[in-house]
């Protein structure tokens, strides 16, 4: 197999259609018999799950804010070891990042040396599109916009006008996609709906693949792919939570970073999975239990009634296993969860916290975290927080001290009770110098 190349799909702003175009590229290239390794820039779990489902193979997060360049290169290289192409979907607008100005899709492109395909929403755009594209292409010298895909074009006349204007920029127009109301995925409060929950998912992906195959020059897209930046072996930064780790995984606990699981396996840990929604308990010999994030607020009744699950967690606590919950997992480790209708549901009760989502308040952003806890990780960590629920905490020791990306202190996060702990933070990695 030839050395795989890579491309990054970006856009001037959110809502331009880059997710659907990326899905279409994955489906169309898969139909050609190519093995395309999908990835997502930034911390988003849901888009990664969507890309994975469309590609029929694993997807990873490549986060230029939370991960050092060496980590990004190593992940990209290992992820594409058996693939023909790395296809990365960007996040937000090309140069949009954290409040400290870092972590953008452009930063990821620069770190990995990947050329960019810019998806531009052409609706209500005329010849001025050339200035827009030229501005993005020339804003930074360390990135390369190799081609443009025009989306939501109104007519043949509109297409001719846009293509003629773009010809003045010297940037290749790779395709022109007309308006199509069938190219939309359902959403909920944390973003797009997970693919298993969207009955229309396969239809949308199939339609996107057909549209991209019809309107985008796939041969030219593949010609633009560049070799991946060379990667050196990297040290393990997030050690396994234990030697035998039981991990909750179902619709209520769906937010898992693949790079973390791969790290744990590489370190020799044995991973097992169980479904709290099916009232399954963690493996009785597990010395660590991980409850990741997800949507427990949508399944309050089922989780409250899951007696085997609860008994298994209590048994894990009593035998001294490390029990760790992130975001939704943290909520379930608490005493009570109030759902969107204000109905209380009894949770496991291992942490003295009460959470509720009936008074929604969005909390979003990267976090620098510091801890002195039983977590077998460096004392400083890089993470992300995104939730609409709120927490009432009593009688507790916080798990993390936290700051935002600008270094501004935030309220302490989470709770620790012996070897049971959790918080709203999703840990991504440790700083390069930790």
Secondary structure layout:
Blueprint: E1 5-10, H1 18-31, E2 36-41, H2 45-55, E3 60-62, H3 69-79, E4 85-89, H4 105-112, E5 116-121, H5 129-138, E6 145-153, H6 156-167, E7 172-178, E8 187-188, E9 191-192, H7 201-215, H8 218-224, E10 226-227, E11 244-248, H9 258-266, E12 270-274, E13 288-291, H10 300-304, H11 307-318, E14 322-326, H12 328-333, E15 336-338, E16 344-346, E17 353-356, E18 363-370, E19 380-387, E20 390-393, E21 400-403, E22 409-413, E23 415-417, E24 420-423, E25 426-429
Parallel strand pairs: 1-4, 1-5, 2-3, 2-4, 5-6, 6-7, 11-12, 11-13, 13-14, 14-24, 15-17
Antiparallel strand pairs: 1-10, 8-9, 15-16, 17-20, 18-19, 18-21, 19-25, 21-22, 23-24
Helix pairs in contact: 1-2, 1-7
Rg from Cα: 22 Å
Strand count: 25
Using the coordinates shown, work out and report the CATH topology of the largest domain.
Rossmann fold
CATH class of the largest domain reads Alpha Beta
Assembly type of the chains comes to single chain
Largest sheet: 8 strands, mixed
Tell me the strand percentage band. Answer: 25-35%
Question: Into which percent range does the helicity of residues fall?
Answer: 25-40%
Average pLDDT reading: 92
Total domains, how many?
2
Shape assignment: elongated
Separate helix tally: 12
| Amino-to-carboxy terminus distance | 37 Å
SS-derived structural category: alpha/beta
Model regions low in confidence, pLDDT < 50 over at least 5 residues: none
Q: Report the CATH superfamily of the largest domain.
A: P-loop containing nucleotide triphosphate hydrolases
* CATH architecture type of the largest domain: 3-Layer(aba) Sandwich
């Amino acid at each position: 197999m030839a050395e795989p190349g890579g491309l990054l799909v970006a856009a001037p702003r959110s809502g331009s259609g880059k997710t659907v175009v990326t899905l279409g590229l994955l489906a169309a290239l898969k139909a050609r018999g190519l093995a395309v390794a999908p990835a997502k820039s930034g911390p988003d779990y849901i888009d990664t799950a969507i890309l994975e489902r469309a590609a029929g193979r694993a997807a990873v997060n490549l986060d230029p804010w939370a991960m050092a360049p060496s980590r990004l290169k190593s992940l990209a290289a290992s992820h594409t070891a058996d693939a023909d192409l790395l296809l990365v979907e960007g996040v937000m607008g090309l140069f949009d990042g954290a409040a400290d100005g870092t972590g953008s899709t452009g930063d990821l492109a620069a770190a990995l040396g990947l050329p960019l395909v810019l998806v531009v929403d052409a609706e209500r755009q005329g010849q001025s599109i050339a200035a827009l594209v030229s501005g993005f292409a020339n804003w930074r010298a360390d990135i390369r916009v190799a081609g443009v895909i025009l989306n939501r074009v109104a007519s043949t006349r509109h297409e001719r006008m846009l293509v003629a204007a773009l010809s003045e920029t010297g940037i290749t127009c790779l395709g022109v996609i007309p308006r199509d109301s069938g190219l939309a995925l359902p959403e909920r409060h944390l973003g797009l709906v997970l693919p298993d929950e969207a009955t229309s998912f396969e239809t949308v992906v199939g339609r996107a693949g057909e549209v991209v195959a019809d309107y985008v020059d796939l041969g030219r897209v593949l010609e633009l792919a560049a070799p991946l930046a060379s990667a050196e072996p990297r040290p393990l930064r997030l050690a396994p939570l234990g030697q035998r780790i039981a991990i909750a995984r179902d619709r209520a606990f769906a937010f898992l970073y693949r790079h973390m699981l791969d790290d744990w396996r590489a370190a020799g840990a044995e991973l097992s999975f169980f479904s709290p929604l099916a009232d399954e308990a963690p493996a009785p010999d597990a010395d660590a239990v991980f409850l990741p994030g997800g949507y427990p607020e949508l399944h309050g009744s089922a989780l409250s009634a899951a007696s085997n699950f609860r008994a298994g967690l209590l048994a894990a606590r009593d035998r001294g296993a490390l029990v760790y919950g992130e975001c939704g997992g943290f909520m379930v480790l608490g005493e009570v969860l109030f759902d969107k209708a204000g109905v209380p549901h009894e949770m496991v009760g291992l942490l003295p916290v009460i959470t509720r989502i009936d008074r929604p308040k969005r909390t979003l952003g990267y976090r620098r975290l510091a801890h002195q806890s039983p977590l077998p990780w460096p004392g400083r960590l890089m993470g992300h927080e995104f939730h609409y629920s709120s927490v009432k905490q009593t009688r507790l020791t916080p798990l993390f001290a936290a700051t935002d990306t600008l270094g501004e202190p935030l309220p302490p996060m989470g709770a620790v009770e012996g070897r049971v702990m959790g918080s709203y933070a999703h840990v991504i990695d440790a700083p390069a110098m930790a």
